[in-house]
Model the fold of this input.
Amino acid sequence: MIRRTGTEMGALSAETDKLCLHAGEGGTVTVAAVAELVPAGVEQSVFKLTEEIASLRTDKAIALYHDLLRRREEPIKLAALLVRQFRSMLYVKELGKQGYSPQQMTGQLGMHPYGVKVTAEQAKAFSIERLTALLGGLAELDYEMKTGRVDKTLGLELWLLRTGSGAGMKV
Done:
């Protein structure tokens, strides 16, 4: 459930109440019920999007992006969340190379211990060079979107396509 809602206590409480009502008195909350009833938050969807990028599953990344657009998520916001996720992975990889433990990373990065653990797992799929290239491409895309040089919806989709195809990271 934490992967779907994040660690914000209000959201966790609301979703727990919903699952308890669904299960009924003496009932059991199943993994299937969580998957069916708890919507993935935007940050969790972006986390999944980065996994699809890492695995070069462009079709799934694009489908997830279109789902986020249907939920009226702003492409500039999505790009910013991707930047945050890739930057966190880069920091975790760099600190890991320097011999930091996950506990030390938690303090250094100001992240929740679970967040550091999950980010470290996801970062294994990326090299430092690829993370740097992705961040550079997103910086270029951000500039292009904010200056109106590229349509923001199309720009992020093109970035996802180019990233997944192994082509350059820039729009």
